[in-house]
Amino acid sequence: MVKLSASLATLTALIPLAAAQAAEWGQCGGIGWTGATACVSGTTCVESNPYYSQCLPGAASVAPSSPGGAAPSGTSSGSLPTGTSTAKLNTLAKAASKLYFGTATDNPELTDTGYTAILDDNTQFGQITPANSMKWDAIEPEQGVFTFTEGDQIADLAMTNAMLLRGHNCVWYNQLPSWVSDGTFTVAQLTSVIQNHCSTLVGHYKGQVYAWDVVNEPFNDDGTWRTDVFFNTLGTSYPQIALEAASQADPNAKLYINEYNIEFAGPKATALLSLVESLKSAGVPLDGVGFQCHFIVGEVSGSGLQTQLSTFAAQGVEVALTELDIRMTLPETPALLAQQKTDYNSVITACMSVESCVGITVWDWTDKYSWVPSTFSGQGAACPWDENFVKKPAFDGIAAALSA
Ligand code: G3I
């Protein structure tokens, strides 16, 4: 989730070419890649980031992205296909016995009346998550000084619109104020800092939140623990400290660990599964696991996701898709949008196939406010509505899966 440097991009150019051709949607380059760098006919090798290039259909005119440079516009041209379904996603999700179909939102977006006209429709969205305003840097920027104004704006919106609210988040390595991230604490001091933060935050919204992402992204992709101030000071005990504080502050809220790259088998999923197992067997209050689902068009395995959801649910937790988006290398093409529709459909189908998967949240519904272009240069168009609030084929893919 970091911007990649231009010097790494330069390194990609040094990777030797191999003779075989990579398949459509297959990898065709990137740092460390030793496989085929030529693509099958009708596709072009397009750099997603310095670590990954992919054979995209009919993308011959696409220039490789320039890491750190300006992202190409994601504006849909008039010739691109759009979604045609008039279905309402939350209505469909509830009719299928899910609790909600929801979306992330963020305070600055709420002055955009075109945006709020759609956001406020609770037949479309039955749940919202604040993308930033309940994070530690927003809530407790100085030790003991709590600022709830922006978080309250999202909580009030959920209440006004009769939507469920997801709290995001109590403990995360990112978006920490420097007094936390750069602090030097004893075990007792940091335990108390976490307890005070989690119980004050969760307590402030007691009764208003369906579920909290109490612990966010505790692991590296290789399954080792992130070496942040929490792990470095408290070792593997900090999730329990945070979960117990949250539970005391709001015993009725569902308490989650939320993570990405656990949607397929691998060391990170294994590490989290083992943490869930040990927390549950120790009687720690953990109710759910959030699968963020930040995916890439053409690289989605719905059946793999379904397996992971079931595997975690077997530990006695509920599961949810908490931050779904499916990005592509810009510009959008009809082929990419068609594949994105297929991918959204298979992700939603995975949740529909697992009873313990309670709901789906997209990480904002419109490309206008997606986090993707500012993080992955040259990529975007990850949401079901375009930046002009026009439904994309992906919307139809979601609606079809919810009503299947
Ligand atoms: O608040 C400052 C503002 O004062 C400043 O003027 C502006 C200048 O860039 O930056 C503002 O902070 C930005 C913040 O969003 C609020 O808009 C940060 O730069 C920006 O990095 C931050 O991005 C957020 C990102 O988390 C941070 O990691 C995204 O909006 C948010 O969507 C994203 O959400 C995360 C989830 O919490 C966890 N899972 C991954 C997901 C996507 O990265």
Automatic annotation (TrEMBL):
A Gene Ontology biological process term: xylan catabolic process
Entry coiled-coil feature ranges: none
Domain GH10: start-end pairs: 86-401
Keyword Secreted: yes
GO CC entries: extracellular region
Residues spanning the signal sequence: 1-20
Annotated localization: Secreted
One Gene Ontology term of the molecular function aspect: cellulose binding
Primary localization: secreted
Gene3D superfamilies noted in UniProt: Glycosidases
Superkingdom of the source species: Eukaryota
UniProt pathway annotation: Glycan degradation; xylan degradation
Assigned EC number: 3.2.1.8
Chain spans, region Disordered: 63-82
Reaction(s) this enzyme catalyzes, per UniProt: Endohydrolysis of (1->4)-beta-D-xylosidic linkages in xylans
Name of the top EC class for this enzyme: hydrolase
Domain named CBM1: residues: 20-56
Keywords: Carbohydrate metabolism, Glycosidase, Hydrolase, Polysaccharide degradation, Secreted, Signal, Xylan degradation
Family in the record: Belongs to the glycosyl hydrolase 10 (cellulase F) family.
Name recorded for this polypeptide: Beta-xylanase
Source taxonomy: Eukaryota, Fungi, Dikarya, Basidiomycota, Agaricomycotina
